[in-house]
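Protocol step 4 of 6: structure prediction from sequence.
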Amino acid sequence: MKSLFTGRLEGYSVGLFKKDLLSGIIVGIVAIPLAMSFAIASGVKPEYGIYTACIAGILISVFGGSKYQIGGPTGAFVPILLGIVLTYGYENLLIAGLMAGIILCLMGIFKLGSLIKFIPRPVTIGFTAGIAVIIFTGQIANFLGLTGIERHEYFIANVKELVMHLGTTNLYSILIAIICLVIILVTPRVLPKVPGALAGIAVSTLIATFFFSEQVATIATAYGQIPNTLPNFSIPEITFERIQLLIGPAFVIAMLGAIESLLSAVVADGMTNSKHNSNRELVGQGIANIVTPLFGGIPATGAIARTATNIKTGAVSPVSGIIHGIFVLVTLLLLAPYASHIPLASMAPVLMVVAWNMSEQKHFAHIVKLKSGDSLVLIITFLLTVFTSLTLAVEVGLVLAVVLFAKRMSEMLVVSKVLPDHSNSSGKVQPNIVNQKHDCPQISIYTIEGPLFFGAAQTFEQTILNSIHYHPKVIILRMSKVPFMDSTGESYFSNIVENFTMRGGTVLVTGVQEELKVALQRNGLFGKIGEENFYHHTGAAIDNGLSYLDENKCIGCKHFAFRECTKLSEPKKCLARI
């Protein structure tokens, strides 16, 4: 156990424990209503959310890679878990969660934590905003007190269900929901240290119990009494057929859990000027999601809002997260019968506020206003999340982001034909002095700027080949500003070399960076071009290229640049006048 906390509990003292104790209790108070709300929204009993907050919360703090991370059920999982419950059932949800835990552990073991940063922000904001819309609309029925509602996996079907049952609206439920919502919004301004969700649920529950008894649906009437006992340990029946059936949902849970937990850890780093271990965090998340289903809990991940609350209330170590889990468990054992009286109308505003806070509306609006490729990625990811599924949304969003990135990168490639500019003392090569009547028919010099990859390689080849239709004797490729070359770029580059050398020409390359040189040696292009044809500077390549000039072609050349060239023994005179 000591090794688990190496570096995280160094210099720990009684005074620091008091800070963690206070933070853990406060976060535990915040976590209880959220845990029940997320469980209900996910289509399972509220106590399963509490079990998750207890067990996963403790395990993530013990085994995770962030000192401040608070784990538990989160809003991001709601549409995913609801879809799995509706399609496969609760027991299969437990198996999918366990499989997701194994995937997360493997991701951490194979050090894939850093790969999460390559998911574009428009994609994460797009699907997060989409999830927020799904959560918000999913609570309208409880807010209005509608009855006879059947839950569906897809957004349109759920909206139709709401419209069809508007006639069952319960005014008492609306009143309770409004009271709870107002208290949630007002409490942080009046009593900043009191969790708004807890205050709203407590006050609205008391009002409903004393004034509208049996007029509104409660947790007890909808799901039965919440048991005030420890969760039972049970290993679900795992078969090969179930693994095949649930590998897709498990992978989605794992990926979303990895993204959410690492984003939360990054937020914690920014708030505390610390640094988390991303791979260890994934292993911790994996362990939590392997163990939690064995006690009936649902998938868990790092919760950004609760982690931020943990930090703001003075947490200094993972001990606060452990205390948070213990507090939730003790509360379950002591107060479960009272929690059963909470109206569903009181739970709805809690999730609606969560949905609004997680929607990142400011960032969403900012990216949309850019009217760029990122805007397109954001909107498409958002719409697909709402109207189809999170899996499809993320897949399409990532592919579209990659395509647009490749397009932008391809536009960065510039291939310019250049010649020495002797109108100034530097004599550097410049593209602006090359034109139809002012060129060299025997030596073509090109400056290539940008990456040679699959999105730009064809442009590179066409530009070179189209501009050497007059068959020069030498091509000089200035490549000091080419950072890398992929296999497609290599293929097109090889085509240029083969095409040109077959005509009897010579390819000279200058300024190749060391990493690119190593790549060329590895793929065989270095040997094909010839080691003697690589130069550090363009001037040396030009001097060598002059030795390949054809005397007959130089004498009497009609190009302006060659009018003063009369014999091969003075070829530099010609090139110097260009």
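Step 5 (inspection) to follow. Residues 555-573 have pLDDT under 50 and may be disordered.
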